[in-house]
Amino acid sequence: MTVLTVVIAPDSFKGTAPAQNAARAIADGWASVRPADRLVLLPMADGGEGTLDAFDTAVPHARRMPVEVQGPDNQPVASSWLLLPDGTGVVELANTSGLTLLNPLRPLDAHTLGFGQAIGAALDHGVDRLLLALGGSASTDGGAGAMAALGALFVDATNRPIRLGNRGLGTLAKADLTGLRELPAGGAQILCDVTNPLLGPNGAAAVFGPQKGATEAQVRGLESNLTRLARLIRVDPSLPGAGAAGGTAFGLLAWGATLAPGAAAIGEALGVPAALAGASVLITGEGRFDAQSAAGKVPSYLLQLAADAGVPAMLVAGSIEADTAAFAVAQSLTTIAGSGALAMADPLRSLRAAGAALAREVDSAR
Ligand SMILES: O=C(O)[C@H](O)CO
Known about the structure:
Keywords: Kinase, Transferase. Helix content is 39%, strand content 19%. The protein is of the alpha/beta class. Strands 3-4-5-6-9-10 form a six-stranded mixed beta sheet, with helices on both faces. Strands 2-1-11-12-13 form a five-stranded parallel beta sheet. Helix 1 crosses helix 15 (347-365).
């Protein structure tokens, strides 16, 4: 049997399996069928949940820097940012102000203050450059909470600071950004998980408000409050990615950060293009493969890279709700387990089964 080099680079299966565990389980399944193959595990992220872990796994001598921040519901969160050996600080919104930190959801009041506090801690440490990972947020505050932590002042018509969260933006009369802390010498790059603009039918409120618990009427309120913020800040709200993490990208752009698609920037940092150059096959995956997956998410980014390298790509997803014709083979964990609930109950088992199934199908895929 020919020995194959298999690059296994899934995103996290959100809420069920971190990318590291998913990659390991797929690899175990593959090895149970084709034990001689060379398996290269490169767990991925797109800027959302798991981004810090992806850098931590991939960059030797990265250091976790603990920080306690005020979570999206004001509760203290024991979090961390990552210091890379070249002096870059990686700060993740999902582990400071993320959706998974909230129960119950607070679509109107959740905020990003804690993310800004973690950025502040990295600046206090003296980082040379910042990578700011955006996605998986609980809030739709346009980044106002993070900016406030970094020195911006948002006040109402009576000059009193507005309350945190999108609801507070409803009383916003003035945004004073003059007190914002300086960017580090090497600048700040936003790694965003989506390409949505801030406002409109594809914007932060309309597309991501419902997953943060907003009703239809509340989405309209979120949109109108974001519009109020956008009128007071000189950043183009239609920029692709400005709507990432409830519009936090929009706020950080006003700070002077630059915007990059998260999956590509993280893939580069992890050395995925180089790994694919010598690969026989790529396996990628995520929790739900749907229409959004095409908008800069991990599988679509890797599919393109694999096509450029002439490497067949295979997909594993918790559920498949979009066309997978571009992949040589696609496996749905829901189909393997018998139902979505069964797949979620023991995701690693289903991922191992998917890895084994892909290994059995690889000859027809190449
Ligand atoms: O956090 C969010 O709103 C989504 O992940 C899109 O960035």
